[in-house]
Amino acid sequence: MEAKSEIRISNSEIDSTLVNIDEALRDSNIQDVLDELDRELVGLKPVKTRIREIASLLLVERLRKQMSLTTDPPTLHMSFTGHPGTGKTTVALRMAKILQRVGYVPQDQRDRKEGDGRRAFY
Predict the structure, then answer these.
(1) Alpha-carbon span 62 to 36, nearest angstrom
(2) What is the 3-state composition of the chain as percent helix, strand, coil, each rounded to the nearest 5?
(3) How many CB atoms neighbour CB 106 within 10 A?
(4) How far is residue 102's CA from residue 13's CA, in Å, rounded to a whole number?
(5) What is the pLDDT of residues 100-122, one digit of tens each?
(6) pTM above 0.85?
(7) Domains and CATH numbers, the chain
(8) Is 97 exposed, middle or buried (0-12, 13-18, 19+ CB in 10 A)?
């Protein structure tokens, strides 16, 4: 039996509205980014799981905002640490794509800064 990914929301301002999470996920194209991450990085299961959790949170926050439900904007400060060659930049770039596709960062706002052995994305 297939689990349904729908949530029924009742609120005094909103008549019983049905939200299809699978449809919202398809429309955002987030799954494409998560699939890229799986293909490009071997291992890193805890990192990939955390990225999926963050993507889910951002998608639900966007849906809540679209339905005029109260939301607290998520804190989007992130730090990617580790030895050279461990995938930090790849993970950060995929996270930036997710943020863009969900609407938290405009497409033209991502900027990569490098220097002194550090990288930053704005």
Answers:
(1) 22
(2) 50, 15, 40
(3) 9
(4) 25
(5) 888 887 765 555 555 555 555 55
(6) no
(7) 6-106 (3.40.50.300)
(8) buried
Provide the 3-class DSSP secondary structure of residue 24: helix
Question: What six digits make up the tokens of 19?
Answer: 């939200």
Furthest-apart CA pair in the chain: how many Å? 55
DSSP states of 87-101: SHHHHHHHHHHHHHH
Residue at token pair 């607290």: 72
Distance CA 99, CA 21 (A): 17
At position 63, the amino acid (one-letter code) is L
Is the confidence at residue 62, as pLDDT, over 60?
Answer: yes
